[in-house]
Amino acid sequence: MSLITTLARLEAVDTGRAQPLATTRHRHLSEHPLVFVPLTTAGEAGAPLGALVGTDRETPRLLVVPQPRDRDLRFAFLAELADIVLPYIDAYAADVEAAERNETDPETGKRVKVEVELCADAPQLIVPSRSGIDFVRLLGRSMRFRRTAEQDPETPHPAPPRVPLLGRWLTHYGERSRVPGSSLLLALTDVLSRHWATGQSSLEDQHLGALLAWIDPPQGESGAEAALRAELRRDGKGQLLCPPAGPATDPAFDNKLLAPAIELYDRARTALAAAEDGIEADDRLGELTAAERQIRDLVESRTRPTWDAVWRGLDLLRALPEGAHAADRWTRDRWSFTGHRDRVLAGEPPQPRRDDAVTAANKLATREREQARLEAQEALDDPLVMAGRRLAGEAFAGEVTDVVMAYNEGKRPSPRPLVTVRTDDRPHFGERAKVYRSLGGKPQAAEFVEYVRSEGEGTPDAQGHALGSLVVLRVVDKMGRGKEPETGSVPEKGDLVCFTLFEHEQRGGAKLPDPEDTPWTHGGPPGETDAAAPQPEVQPDAVTDEDVL
Amino acid sequence: MNKTALASALGSPSAFGQSQFAFMRGNAFEARVKADGGAELLRLVHEKLDAGAVPPTTGTVPDLSAVGPEGRTARTALALREATDAGVWTLLDHPLLALDVAGSPAFLEPDAVVVHPDGSWTVVEIKSFPMLDGSADAAKVGAAARQAAVYVLALERVAARLSTGPEGRAGDAAHAEATLLTVPAPSDLPTAALATPTEAPAETLGTPGAQDGIRARPPEVRHTVLLVCPKDFSNLPTASAVDVRKQRSVTRRQLDRLTRIEDIADLLPEGTCFSPDLPTADLTAAVESVPATYAPECLSACELAFHCRDHSRAEGAVTSLGRSLRAELGGLTTVDDVLSAARGETGDPTDPAVAALRRAAALRAEALGSGARPGAEPLGGTEGLRAEASGRAAC
Fold it and tell me: ipTM value of the model?
């Protein structure tokens, strides 16, 4: 955390309100995101209890598993979820535009441009908190290896038809969310705390209710008080007034409300199964419906506040103008979405349990590159982020005090003007360090030449400001082909400029071999060692009888 | 002492609690792992840790029940000795161990300890979080490893005692144990949870030791523990060997460095009492007489965290926002100090922390547009100067 962020947090403590950490919104927000507020059952892995899901803030769909340990009820939940999420995804998958992509021609080995489809927009999934992202990933993992009756008539517990496909999509979204700056799957707490600093620790910022209370406290109350209330206040029955954003539920809710309701439901179900005639069964069915109704109400009472909070958070974020480079990163998200759409259409198997060496290395390289890209783009989009880089000595801003035309000594002299900048910042230059500024959206490079001692350095000027140091730079590119630089390509005296010591655009690293050519040092080509074994990757998970799951 | 009750009495109840679903699931899983005399558990230990040894056929599960914690620790030590001598696979289900913590003994109950045929001991930790495709949540595994490391330490003390006999002549370890057992609990602290073992268990232990003669070498406590978790989404057990050497040395160092309880007790005013029945004001005064430095990490570990957080926030301590903050602010420890130093009202400008702060404050104000320097030209909206343009104050 930079000192500027620290200062913002302390100001938030002092003023009782969250303070801005960004002047623009650094994540793309879809016009119609799909909001997903899941709840899970404590102690069980991947046993959902219920969820609110939908694209319309007024009419969310409530899905409930009245007995989370019952596999059939869980499958029913997942099938319903698939019926909501997959049509939403399909709507985006169908709307495409033409694009070009560089590919290596398999015959000539040359890089050629290929016409491909790119989805015009991508579906965006929003969950309340970071643990919601983990839950999406977990759900994806639990579903993608399931077999439907159509795929395998022998399978002991066939899954409903579209469930494995939903698992593959959720897995893809979960994986993509690990790429810095991506927006296909967002955790609202992460995005909010990227843009605002609260007067509490980042650990406490994980609580959506408390975080929103700091950012947008109710009338007449300080953020600190409202956050404390959201975090701890309980009603007469010992229940939290602001239920946790999930997917984990509050133990007091589990023990006092949910457990008795589930027990009632179990009893009603046993009674129904034991009913001897139609009239008795009708009565008992009524009891069962009532018991289910009660669990539905309980789940809704815990998810609806979070649902509303998520939309409120989205409103707050939408009030910020979107950063200029966020669209560029969203295009990458659209490529990612289109790529997975194509893999599904091509009938490829689900993502393996473990990545092979080449895929894993590629993913890591992508994340590193995207992290660097995100840091550079956020700084270029947002003066507040740039201020942090300037404080760290990674960028400097100042006024051009002198421009001297100079040329290099080649056969055809090219312009290499020397620009003197007066700055208060303290950049850490190496010898002949390269610096960059953004010129019409493209980076223009310059070289550090020297510091100049100037008269009056460090003494206050007429307005009482201390004068900064003088830095001489040699501009080296983006000035056109002629002897004279193109107009506007060289800073003029009096211009305010901002140079960075980091590069604006990221280059890809060295190309990795195809998975079939994985060297033996990295385990060799996948599947070579156990080629005889029947593809272990698509084996469904083991199930046990005792496990009602 | 019961910190949960204390926290409630202070008006800042702790938020810890366990859902009965998780509790039931955890118990059911543990029972399943230990079913049939621990056959499945011993199979896992054999497979993951000691594949060279004879496969376990019928494991021995000694009865460890006894009266009181002292009795149970003694019984555990006895069972360990017998199993080590017998040289067969043995499962100790919920043994009880004593460990010296800050000069006061604490009792620990591992899920299980397995004695191998070669006489070495392994700590087994059974957890109900899933191991998905062979990997589990790193934070939870880390917590389990730290927990197991404490058990390994406690077992090492037992092993050292077994090898040296009761007289305490044979080495430092025995000497340390003797000290441990004779330290009286500070009488002015409530010690509900920290009962003091008497001399009795040491003597019970000692008798067979004297008969057998003194061991040349203490039994080996393996530094690799076995973590047993449900496999994927089922409740079939799967296991993984976890090396806890690092956690063990960290814990050992921390235990050695802990201020002894009697030293803390000496600092307290005469008559300090932490009984939850006291009026809140007295209780608050009593708790505050013990120095504590709150940090956000406390929230996940201590029942009194909310009380300490209130206190820390009221004082304006910067640590309540995170330990890393405290580190970068040098000698400035309160929010007011930092902000007034940043505004240039207080603080020594030659102090690097203060200078950095003022620069940060100036840059932040400039970027947010309030620090616009008079006379600075608003920039034309060229793309290239976007960064300065929105700040309108590059200078």
Answer: 0.83
